[in-house]
Description:
The chain is an alpha/beta fold. 36% of the residues lie in helices and 18% in strands. The protein is built from nine helices and eight strands. It has helices spanning 6-28, 30-34, 95-101, 123-137, 153-164, 179-186, 201-204, 225-234, 256-269, and strands at 53-59, 62-69, 77-81, 104-108, 146-151, 169-173, 212-217, 239-244. An eight-stranded mixed β-sheet has the order 1-2-4-3-5-6-7-8, sandwiched between helices. Helix 4 packs across helix 5 (153-164). It starts with 5 loop residues before the first helix and ends with a helix.
Amino acid sequence: MHPLPVTLVVLSAVLATVYVIALVALYVMQERILFPGARLPVGHRFGFSVPFEELTVTVPGAALHALLFRRPAPRGLVFFIHGNAGNVETWTEDLDFYARVEYDLYIFDFRGYGKSTGRIGSEAELHADVRAAWDSIAPAYAGLPVVVYGRSLGSGLAVELARHVTPTLVVLVTPYTSVAAIGRRIYPWAPAALLKYPLRSDAAIGAIGSPLMLLHGTADALIPHDESVRLLALATSPAELVTIEGASHNDIHEFPAYLERLAERLATLAVD
């Protein structure tokens, strides 16, 4: 057997080194990739056309900034957990919708997003922050429907929250079975053990006792519609999947079918 040519040995060593460097970079930059939130100055003034309150939720090592949009006589509350980009300002495009359905809207920013301080450091910390935000507002709506709404990245956080609290309804929009599953599609060369934020909705959704409503577009290239199909099969509480034809990941909220179906479901929850 002839020894490997020197050039082949050198090339293999270079490729191995590059691979290790790529893995280290992916691990170190994981928070930047998953949580590219946009910060806002402390003195930033929001220009919403409807009344709102700015609230602060104190958590260990940080302060979460939240917005509460109140109706004069709300029929319920939507507790909104947004996606991985932007901040509460960019995620409040549907204020007219909430006014029409007469639900209050509570939305907060993760650490390092908008006016929230601190930095996200672990999945456990992220779940604890979501629970703290919930505890700060949900008790005020005792006797009214309270909906946990998770969008994209926020859907995994909504699933985990709903395991421990009892919302009237859990709405998951463009959800995923796990961040690990999405990561395998985007970074097929990276081992799953590298992921610090697996967010296993597939492992948690069966423990939810509240009714579930999933909404997903057929043209979603980031999180395929099949992810919702899989989650629906794992749910043990009453669940439905609303498929929005032609909707992609970022525009599903603009489709009349999405707005109409969500409005109908919220209306059925409201007390007389």
